[in-house]
Design a protein that fits this description.
single chain, about 350 residues, alpha+beta, 10 helices, about 20% strand, elongated
């Protein structure tokens, strides 16, 4: 079986790598290059800025192309083996289909794990740098006068020391309104402070008309204290507040979880952020799901060029991303739970693939 495993993987790797290059080129050609050309024509973006935008757009595109490429690789690998009757010989030797497809399933599993790590540590930073170049270097955007739902944090080492939520920030008056501040010691919540508003006195932020809840005992609120004026434990200066705010696709899973928690506590709708967080796991899992679907589909009795496998992969990809788009829309609107919205295409396609594998193994 080691010889067969290596042989099947060899058939899989070439179309997989071809798929990564081909699908990436399609995404770049149909979307990224158009946006770059528009930035050059509209804002006069330099060649250096355009090149960096192109490079920084690549990580988020590659993550999307991995499941497509796994699907194409598994379809074409088993399509070729089936068309040349090699699968018949292998199965005549007593091997069922599930065992023959196992090396591709294992590789797809590790691709899913690698994509999850890549999606956590590389993609958010690339997206943040991508948006920074466009907004600050190309468009020279001026920050809006007011911005809603501000979240700021102070970090000591690997732990958060304080986390602040403000319902609105006015950059002209340098004022934060409707604040909630959580203070931590060794990752344990010890104080919650609420204030009507806070302003910048030239050296630090000062909260006004608030209340402090002491939670240091660990058994709920031990005592409360009101105050007229209290220093806000946030170090960001006014000119850095707008710049420090990130879109969901620029955050790591931990940052998303922290922001969701504090927004939930302040009755802010976080469905979209929750769907984004669960998508960080659901999209990488699609590589394994696509392998499970693609392998049995490749055994269809269709002798012909490799364009057949490519065509089937396009149809399956269309179905998968249609379900994903529909699920995300329902999740963002609160129609279904966010975790179900993110994993809905994996569940549907995974069950379909499992049934196909079972039927081919009989």
């Amino acid at each position: 079986m080691r010889i067969l495993d290596k042989y099947i993987l060899k058939e899989f790797i070439s179309p997989f790598l071809f798929g990564v290059c081909a699908f990436t080129a399609v995404f770049i050609g149909t979307g990224t290059l158009y946006r770059i050309a528009n930035l050059i024509n509209t804002y006069g973006a330099s060649a250096w800025a355009a090149f960096r935008i192109l490079v920084l757009a690549m990580p988020s595109i590659i993550v999307v192309t991995f499941p497509m490429s796994v699907l194409l690789g598994s379809l074409m690998a088993f399509g070729r083996l089936s068309s040349s009757s090699e699968l018949i010989v292998m199965r005549s030797g007593g091997q069922n289909f599930a065992r023959l497809a196992m090396p591709i399933f294992v590789v797809a599993f590790f691709i899913s794990i690698g994509t999850t790590i890549f999606n956590e540590y590389v993609v958010p930073r690339a997206n943040n740098a991508y948006n920074t170049i466009i907004n600050e270097e190309v468009k020279h955007n001026v920050a809006p006068a007011t911005q809603d739902h501000i979240v700021l944090k102070n970090v000591k080492g690997a732990n958060i020391s304080s986390l602040m939520y403000a319902r609105q920030y006015n950059s002209e008056t340098k004022m934060l309104t409707d604040l909630t501040v959580q203070e931590f010691e060794n990752d344990t919540l010890v104080r919650v402070e609420k204030a009507e508003w806070a302003d910048w006195n030239g050296a630090k932020w000062v909260m006004h008309d608030g209340i402090i809840y002491d939670l240091s005992g660990g058994d709920g609120v031990e005592r409360t204290m009101t105050f007229d004026h209290q220093a806000l434990p946030i170090v960001q200066k006014p000119d850095r507040i707008n710049a420090s705010q990130k879109d969901p696709d620029e955050m790591t899973i931990r940052e998303l979880r922290e922001q969701i928690q504090i927004l939930d506590e302040n009755a802010v709708n976080t469905n979209k952020m929750k769907v984004e967080m669960y998508n960080r796991f659901a999209l990488p899992l699609a590589s394994l799901v696509c392998a499970i679907v693609g392998a049995p589909l490749g055994m269809q009795k269709q002798r012909g060029s490799s364009s057949i496998g490519f065509g089937i992969s396009v149809v399956v990809i269309f179905i998968y991303y249609t379900i994903m788009t529909l699920g995300n829309a329902l999740g963002n609107g609160g129609r279904i739970p966010p975790y179900l919205a993110a994993f809905l295409p994996d569940i549907i396609c995974g069950i379909t693939g499992a049934v196909l594998v079972y039927r081919k193994s009989k």
